Amino acid sequence: MSRIGYGLNLRLPAQQKKQQPAKPPRPPPFGFNDEDDDDVEGDISRQASKKKSLKDIEEQQKKALEEDPTVFDYDGVYDEMKEKAVRPRAQDREERMPRYIQLLKEKTKEREKYREVVYERKIAKERSKDDHLFADKDKFVTSAYKKKLEEQRKWMEEERLREQREAKEDVTKKSDLSDFYMYIGKNVAFGAKDAEARKLEKQVESKKPVKQAESSEPEKLEEKGYADTSDEGRSPDPLNSPLEVSGMEDKHQEQNTSKILHTTPSTTTTSIFSHSYGAYSISLSFGTPPQTLPFLLDTGSDFTWFPCTHHYRCNNCSFSNSTTITSFIPKLSSSSKILGCLNPKCSWIHRSNSNNCTNQICPPYLIFYGSGNTGGLALSETLNFSNRTVHDFLVGCSVFSSYQPAGIVGFGRGPSSLPTQLGLNKFSYCLLSHRFDDTNKHSSLVLYNDSEKTQGLLNLSYTNFVKNPKLAEKPEFSVYYYVALRQISVGGRHVKVPYKYLNPQPNGSGGTVVDSGTTFTFMSRGVFELVAAEFRRQVKHERAVGVEALTGLRPCFNVSKKQNMEKEMVSFPELRFHFKGGAEMVLPLENVLAMAGEGDGEEGGSDGAVCLTLVTDGVAGEKQVAGGPAIILGNFQMQNFYVEYDLRNERFGFRQQSCN
After folding, report:
1. Domain coordinates of the chain in residue numbers?
2. Can you give the residue ranges of the Peptidase A1 domain (predicted)?
């Protein structure tokens, strides 16, 4: 009978089967063999050789131990391998610092200084009432208190000078354009420089190897009369600037789209980068030859502008990690044209009748954001992508800004937005996690220009856009992307939010918008208090009151033992948004909670705290626009979400995925 073994067993023909060798006879039991006496000497020799080999092995082991005492420490080597694998994660967990709390801490310190000054004044006022009772008594003041008063005096003087400087530069208090053109004349928008700066720039350019075609470009501009004619100490005439004025000849130009090459590709892709100041940016190239600059991606506005000229000024922009801000130089672009007042695109900015023009150029713009502002002149410029070119694109040449780390590209609903000028029917992006802020990691923004009706992607949840409220006194409401949020649930429990907050009202209040330019999701106080109360009700951790006072965020909770952080995070309830049509957005905990430094628990072992990343009026310095949306979905909650703005079908789609 053939024996079957493991593996492949082949059947052989009978003639090919080998005869099995005959088994040797079993040896007789010990003591019944006559030759046993002859094998004793052999056994002795085998035992001797075995002892010798064992002795040799022992000597080799001793020699190896002398060279390396841990040569046989297999458990130690295994433990060290495991420790090396775990060490980077533990070290990353220990060295990771909160990114969004530093600015909040600074603002909190400023508020504390204000409170101390107010308190000192109050005490001094109360003390003055009793001065007549102790006029003949000696007064003693400690050196520490004197030092404190001196620090307060210096700080108040610095604040006074800062406010005085800001008041002097406040463009909203200017009666006419004289102050604006005073800065223009130095020169900001038209390429003029003083003699020393021009000489230095020529020396730098002379050292650079340039192509023949590029070196002849300034000569061509001089032949056309575009040369720099401004003298030292003299303000150039804006109408005689090196830029052309685009207006009269473009009066009957198409209003809704820019001039785009006939061979327009169906999609265009560009990279998105995340930053520690809470925003996402893309790079765009303007001008001829192209000049590439970073722009903040903002779906809550519709105007695109870049820092412009060598004299661009930005106040309070030190929160950006970049030491310098890249500016666009109109003089170096042969396609730059100042927008004319009669150009229909001028009304996109000022929303006024072009027949009221009192000047040849489009009046300067001044735009206010939730934090900061910018101002400058409108240009008609060429926008260059890797696979397409857009001519006569309306863009702002900003000469001053505040709290703006870079230019802004508006993706809102207005006529001047990038999707409208490019005639897009859809755009989508995937927001990278903020843990990769200020790194080379990036995700993608995709612009769709298909002429045919586009189909939705698989596994996307869709909800329709809501009609924007139309208010003449608040035109900014017309550019928002309103969505129909119907319910908010915390840990599976529905929060009873009043109807007036969930739907846009005739006066512009209420409703929910999606804004990639906002960091933390904003909620009106009437909504925030309900959501925060439900969080406090379900979370069993101790409140970190000290962290709340330090950061301005609330509620915050103590979490114990960093090595158990991930297990403790599981105990927090999930936050879920329910939209009209059945779409539900389930936010992972890393999109709802943020590490906020050390905890302040009394039980001991509390070395961390987490805070809810939802803000309202007065929380983390947020201020609501009067009568504005009740809920603004920020980019922190959209981390690792693929989102789609289907403009043709008027709907908003999303799904959770890794964007790394």
Report:
1. 245-448, 461-656
2. 280-655
Alpha-carbon separation of residue 227 from 35, 155, 223 (angstroms): 120, 48, 8
Which residues are catalytically annotated?
298, 515
Which overall architecture, per CATH, does domain 245-448 show? Beta Barrel (2.40)
What SS3 string covers 24-81? CCCCCCCCCCCCHHHHHHHHHHHHHHHHHHHHHHHHHHHHHHHHCCCCCCHHHHHHHH
Could you report how far apart the first and last alpha carbons of the chain are, in Å? 62
600, 496 contact by CB (below 8 A) = no
Helices (H), 449-515: 499-502
Give me the sign of the Cα torsion angle 478, 481, 483, 485: negative
- Rounded to a whole number of angstroms, the CA Rg of the chain reads 37
Determine the pLDDT at residue 237. 40
Where do we find the tokens 């925060």? 532
- Residue of higher predicted confidence among 353 and 118: 118
Amino acid, res. 241: S
**Distance set, CA 170 to CA 309, 544, 622 (Å):** 20, 40, 22
Q: Considering only CA atoms, which of 434, 155, 507, 440 is closest in space to residue 277?
A: 434
Question: What is d(CA 422, CA 419) in angstroms, rounded to the nearest whole number?
Answer: 5
CA angle 379, 383, 389 (to 5 degrees): 135
- How far CA 174 is from CA of 93, 168, 178, 182, 397, in Å, comes to 52, 9, 8, 12, 20
**pLDDT tens digits for 48-86?**
787 778 888 888 888 888 888 877 777 877 888 888 777
φ, ψ for residue 315, nearest 5 deg? -90, 140
- Same topology between domain 245-448 and domain 461-656: yes
Whole-model pTM above 0.70?
A: no
Give me the CATH code for the 461-656 domain, please. Answer: 2.40.70.10
